[in-house]
Design brief:
This protein is an alpha/beta fold. It has two domains: 152 residues, Quinone Oxidoreductase, Chain A, domain 1; 140 residues, Quinone Oxidoreductase, Chain A, domain 1. Helices cover 28% and strands 27% of the residues. It is built from nine helices and 16 strands. The strands form three sheets. Strands 3, 5, 6, 7, 8, 15 and 16 form a seven-stranded mixed beta sheet that branches. The chain has a six-stranded parallel beta sheet with strand order 11-10-9-12-13-14, with helices on both faces. The relative contact order is 0.16. Bound molecules: NADP nicotinamide-adenine-dinucleotide phosphate (NAP). NADP nicotinamide-adenine-dinucleotide phosphate (NAP) binds next to helix 1, helix 2 and helix 3.
Length: 336
């Protein structure tokens, strides 16, 4: 695919639909409006949520035709009026594209609101950064904003070896919490290496009893990244004023024991990163940049493909074929 004058190459959709509906697009070269930067995209992540936006499972405004994808890392190509703190040539990232009417990430150049743009720490590889952004930002929101985790508290991350779960272990350990995790037995060492004190096999039929032994005073913050959302057990395990963070399993319909919940002042807090405010995203971005700069967390495997593989990438994610890996798309090479 070759871009015509005044256009950029992209991968996207003209209506909500299946992964197979993603195809190459040629979009008008974006204008850099006031309060915006133009980002020449180096790498784009493929996330579960991108498939939800594409299919309509997550309802949001889309201005068709639209490129798919929300997280992009790139180089600033132009800076609009009323923009301070960013310069042409600087590496930057955003995780706010492709929903709420904003253009999508899988395009050679994209206009980004500066309030949703963050500097990339020096020396960080753009592909590695793109892979890490979504799990790290989600983990930061889950632990800090919605879990309100405090030093010395006990946190339990179900699915501690997954992308969001493993990033959450790192954030929680950095906050000085006592970190419990569940994972497949083969992933116990991985979770311990990221800061989990106790790792339990999620296939163990006695998991709830073992968690009770590990946290006799109850668990202050519970984060289930597996989407199972067993709230009956979670409420049983909650400490007084415990927070149960729900972030996955869009089709799950758990039973909530309301009496036990309110009698221990516990709460269930759902969140989707798409609803995060600009301030919440900026706070999470500071944590993400600390994690990137210190190489505190990165995915175990990154599959690097080109924009032309966007349809394939969505299909792979939806089929559950990318266990333990993150897919990152890079733009096509420019001729000449
Ligand atoms: N709300 C938000 O803003 C937000 C943002 C990002 C992601 N998410 C959602 O978060 C979820 C996790 O995303 P991810 O990228 O971290 O996925 P992932 O890497 O597949 O992680 C899920 C983890 O759950 C584990 N698991 C499976 N069954 C389990 C069980 N019964 N008990 C405990 N753990 C179990 C899996 O272990 P195995 O590998 O051994 O199967 C895996 O490690 C997805 O549903 C995603 O859509 C939500």
């Amino acid at each position: 695919m070759t871009a015509g004058r005044g256009t950029v190459r992209a991968a996207g959709i003209e209506r909500r639909g299946a992964a197979a509906d993603i195809h190459p697009l040629e979009l008008p070269h974006p204008r850099c409006g006031p309060g915006q930067v133009l980002l020449r995209v180096s790498a784009v992540a493929v996330n579960h949520v991108d498939t939800f936006v594409r299919s309509g499972t997550y309802p949001t405004e889309l201005a068709f035709p639209v490129a798919v994808g929300r997280d992009a890392v790139g180089v600033i190509e132009a800076v609009g009026d009323r923009v301070d703190g960013f310069a042409v040539g600087q590496q930057a990232w955003t995780n706010s594209l492709g929903f709420a009417g904003r253009p999508g990430a899988t395009a050679e150049v994209v206009a980004v609101d500066v309030e949703r743009t963050y500097p990339l720490p020096a020396g960080v590889d753009p592909v590695a950064a793109a892979a890490a952004l979504h799990p790290c930002a989600t983990a930061a929101l889950a632990v800090d904003r919605h879990g309100a985790l405090e030093r010395g508290e006990t946190v339990y991350v179900a699915g501690g070896a997954g992308q969001v779960g493993s990033a959450a272990l790192v954030v929680a350990a950095a906050r000085g919490a006592r970190v419990l995790a569940s994972a497949a037995a083969a992933d116990a060492g991985y979770c311990r290496g990221l800061g989990a004190w106790t790792v339990l096999d999620y296939r163990d039929g006695e998991l709830a009893a073992r968690l009770r032994e590990a946290a006799p005073g109850g668990i202050d913050v519970q984060i289930d990244t597996s989407g199972h959302n067993d709230l009956e057990t979670a409420v049983e395990l909650a400490a007084p004023r415990g927070r149960i963070v729900v972030l996955s399993g869009p089709a799950s319909a758990p039973v909530l024991p309301a009496g036990k919940l309110y009698m221990r002042d516990a709460s269930v807090r759902g969140f989707a990163i798409s609803n995060a405010t600009v301030d919440e995203l900026a706070r999470a971005a500071r944590t993400v940049n600390t994690m990137l700069a210190g190489r505190q967390w990165e995915p175990r495997h990154v599959l690097e493909r080109s924009f032309a593989d966007a349809s394939w990438a969505h299909a792979q994610l939806e089929a559950g074929n990318v266990r333990g890996a993150r897919i990152v798309l890079v733009p096509p090479k420019t001729a000449g």
